[in-house]
Amino acid sequence: MEFQIVRSNNSAQPYFWRIVASNGLTLAASETYVNKQDAINAVHIVRVNAGNAQVLDYC
């Protein structure tokens, strides 16, 4: 599994990140960001905090 920083087709907010599984499937994708560094910072926040996140079932 890996985090990828990607350029989008949105010229106003050209960066986003995604989590890609080892089989190549995208597991999650972020909102878009104006600055590449903002996307990188968001990846860091997710990596640091994901292990402590609750799983809530709203079904």
* Whole-angstrom Rg: 13 Å
Low-confidence stretches: none
Number of helical regions: 1
Structural class: alpha+beta
Order of helices and strands: EEEH
Distance between the termini: 27 Å
Mean pLDDT: 95
- Strands of the widest sheet, in order across it, are 1-2-3
Task: Kindly report the name of the CATH homologous superfamily.
Answer: YegP-like
Total count of strands: 3
Overall outline: globular
The figure for the number of domains is: 1
Level-1 CATH class name: Alpha Beta
* Fraction in helix: 10-25%
At the fold tier of CATH, the topology name is: Double Stranded RNA Binding Domain
CATH architectural name: 2-Layer Sandwich
Largest sheet: 3 strands, antiparallel
Beta content: 25-35%
Descriptive overview:
The chain has a three-stranded antiparallel beta sheet, covered by helices on one side. With 59 residues, it is α+β, with helices and mostly antiparallel strands. It has a single domain, classed as YegP-like (Double Stranded RNA Binding Domain, 2-Layer Sandwich), CATH 3.30.160. The protein contains one helix and three strands.
